[in-house]
Input
Amino acid sequence: MKVWIDQSQCLNSGLCEETAPSMFGLGDDDLAYVRENGRLRLSPGGEECQVEVPDDLAGDVELAARECPGQCIHIVG
Output
């Protein structure tokens, strides 16, 4: 399973970071981005920044996607 965030739909609520801090975080622009190996994937962002989700974090990522007020978290696979 992979995950990515559509920053154009992000409402910067920070809920994803609260739910799965190992996978999500807010950038300097206050928009959410996915993390890979602990670092935010800031460039280029969007669908081109799909990140593999470790099995032990899949439930948290799915919950974050369901609860995201902007519906900007996308799960692939």
